[in-house]
Amino acid sequence: MFGVGTIVAPTGAGKTTIAAEIIHRAVERGNRVLFIAHRKELIDQARARVLEITGEIVGVERGEWRSGTERIVDLNAPCYLGKYDLVLDPGTIEHCFNIGQAIINAANAVAEGGVIFHTPPMSMINHGFYNLNPTLLHDFYTQNGWHVEFMAGVQENSFFSLPAAQRIAVPPECSIYFVARRMNSNQLIYPTQAKYLANPNLGALH
How far is Cα 131 from Cα 157, in angstroms, rounded to an integer? Predict the structure, then answer.
């Protein structure tokens, strides 16, 4: 359904326009898309770009791309967002205090066979409530039976490899680009950190 591709561009280069085109093409193929954002300004900007590209008025469920609807939901609490083939989280979950529930809400919105994309910060002080470690996303999705299709660190326009569990030093102002595909419709579970599953005696793992 979706191949894995990654777009990196500096501020002002048109990432919202590119995302709007991706959403438009996905919907044209009959796919349902969920775009999640933490500020109304971002939703309005994305909706305006889709309008420019398609000439159609679209609604957002902070966001669900459907004609004539708009919903604002609290991702800190359990909420049903529907089922979608593509869920885009371009930097939202780190702004939710109850981040575990926010991740579960986003993941629950992915239909079996669908794809989710996260791009949370990894070393951006005070950008949001949290900076995320790769092991959080990797452990949550793999222990729930999803297939991780892409995971990398990004700083400006440069990618670098990220280990799933081992310690790593990263430069400042880095994000994670993470893509996973849902392979089942099982109820989602909380993960156990992988390094402790591999080392149940709680010894150090480097």
Answer: 19
Q: Which helix (H) or strand (E) holds 138?
A: helix 134-143
- Report CA Rg, the chain: 17
Distances (CA, A) of 103 to 134, 137, 191: 14, 9, 12
**Adjacency order of strands within the sheet including 33-35:** 63-64, 33-35, 84-89, 110-118, 175-181, 147-155, 158-160
Q: What pTM does this model have?
A: 0.76
Q: What is the DSSP letter of 76?
A: T
CA pair distance 14, 31, nearest whole angstrom = 23
Q: Which helix (H) or strand (E) holds 88?
A: strand 84-89
Q: Tens of pLDDT along 51-60?
A: 676 655 454 4
At 28 the three-state DSSP class reads helix
Contact 193, 127 (CB under 8 A): no
How does DSSP classify residue 181?
Answer: E
- Token pair listed for 33: 């898309």
* Cα distance between residue 93 and residue 33, in whole Å: 17
**Strand partners of residue 88:** 35, 117
* Average of per-residue pLDDT across 36-59: 64
Separation of alpha carbons 200 and 183, rounded Å: 27
Q: At what angle do helices 99-108 and 134-143 cross, to 10 degrees?
A: 40
Distance CA 101, CA 139 (A): 15
